Amino acid sequence: MKGTEKIIAHIMSDAQAQADAILAQAQEKCALIRDDYAKKAADAYGERIRTGVKACADAASSVERLERMEAKKSLLALKQEMISRSFEKAEKMLVSLPEDKYVSLLASLAAKSSSTGDEEIVLNAADRERVGKAVVKAANERLGSGRLTLSKDAGDFDGGLILRRGNIEVNCTAELLVELCRGEMSAAIAGVLFD
To answer: Which of 97, 144, 159, 168 could make a disulfide contact with 102, Cβ separation 3.0–4.6 Å?
Structure first.
């Protein structure tokens, strides 16, 4: 039996050697596969990180652009508010001119706006009492043969006048005069205020 035991031992030894070789080969293959997948995982991880960083940078850039746009809108709104206040102040200055200059202004407006010379001048209640007669007299003098009259009605406006003949009215109120100047003077005022 000793011979069979030797043969069995030799077969077992060869089988063990083959098993060890197969196991070593399998472990080597596993190591290669593991390394390949580790590299793929690292590449995928790196790509995800790059994508995430780019997405964050894009989002931050977008927020920054929106913030800049909002800041510009706020600044523009502030500038427009300041320009509007400038025109409101101009209107207040116009209606609070010294009496002689205000009468001259209103008479000039009435004379230039008159088409027939026999319209009626509508003033607000305060101006009607304070300077009404003087305005009519000065406007008629400017027209030469003018027959302008002071309306019994008082207008609902801050200053200036309305020239009326029947249903036809020419608006020369301070509000309208300032508004008409607004378009051409806004840029100049902005230049003075903000440059």
So the answer is: 97
Q: Furthest-apart CA pair in the chain: how many Å?
A: 157
Q: What is the pLDDT of residue 80?
A: 84
pLDDT, tens digit, for every residue of 105-141? Answer: 999 999 999 988 889 999 999 999 999 999 999 999 9
Enter the tokens of residue 105: 């202004």
Cβ atoms within 10 Å of 75's Cβ, excluding its own:
11
d(CA 122, CA 149): 9
Sheet architecture: strand order including 160-165: 149-155, 120-124, 160-165, 168-173
Answer for the pair 163, 114: CB distance below 8 angstroms, yes or no: yes
Phi, psi of 118, rounded to the nearest 5 degrees: -125, 30
Whole-angstrom Cα distance, residue 130 to residue 148?
A: 18
Inter-helix orientation angle 174-194/2-95, to 10°: 130
Rounded-to-integer distance, Cα 19 and Cα 103, Å? 121
Tokens of residue 119, six digits: 């319209």
